[in-house]
Specification:
With about 200 residues, the chain is α+β, with helices and mostly antiparallel strands. It has one domain. It is built from 3 helices and 8 strands, in the order ββββββαββαα. An 8-stranded antiparallel sheet has the order 1-2-3-4-5-6-8-7, covered by helices on one side. A hairpin with a 6-residue loop joins strand 7 and strand 8. It starts with a strand and ends with a helix. About 20% of the residues are buried.
Length: about 200
């Protein structure tokens, strides 16, 4: 079975993204679309995931994942899961998985195809699209949770909000005292209390 990749501009998207259509020459052709761009050096950058970006480099025969936001704890597990998925599908050499020269990136080498009619880079694109499909439910869940969190902060219900002036003002509120440093609080508490009692 041979696999062909067609890259064309997506007129519906205003970000300049391109559609990558992977069509297998089989009785029932398979068509896959990815939100991707081609870099000036020929690399294919894939942006479908909400936590990571994937770059496939045909010239270097390499695939690299980059976190969209390095501060998120979920980024590394997704990168690890992605490269393990590629290993199980027989796309990359497991011994080549390593940290990239860009902070928090992970890269690996794509196997050279020994199967007639099968292109290594095209296969990497196809398997990457399968991984994105598997992650779709998690992506939508995270996006939904973020929307609900933002809504909770910006538009709270009556139970979780107060009107201006509903809580009276006072000079001191809560248990924190600005005159006592955090580490010295346990030693100074009794002295402070005695001074306030007088």
């Amino acid at each position: 079975m041979s696999v062909n990749v067609k890259i064309e501009k997506d007129e519906n998207q205003q970000t300049g993204a391109i559609k990558i259509k992977i069509v297998a020459d089989s009785p029932e052709p398979v068509q896959v679309e990815l939100n991707a761009r081609r870099a000036l050096n020929g690399d294919i950058m894939i942006f479908d995931h909400d936590l990571i970006d994937v770059v496939i480099s045909p010239e270097k025969n390499k695939i690299t994942s980059f976190p969209k936001d390095i501060m998120k704890r979920e980024t590394y597990p997704v990168q690890e899961s992605f490269h393990k998925f590629l290993v199980k599908k027989g796309i990359i050499d497991p011994s080549s998985i390593q940290s990239g020269n860009v902070y928090s990136s992970i890269e690996s080498s794509i196997y050279e195809s020994k199967i007639e009619g099968i292109n290594a880079v095209q296969s990497a694109l196809f398997i990457t699209s399968l991984f994105m499909q598997n992650e779709k439910a998690d992506i939508l869940t995270r996006q939904d949770m973020q929307r609900n969190f933002d809504l909770h902060l910006l538009s709270p219900d009556e139970e979780n909000s107060t009107e201006l002036g509903e809580i009276p003002q006072s000079d001191r509120k809560g248990s924190m005292d600005s005159r006592v440093s955090p580490y010295g609080y346990q030693y100074m508490y009794s002295l402070l209390r005695e001074r306030e009692d007088k």
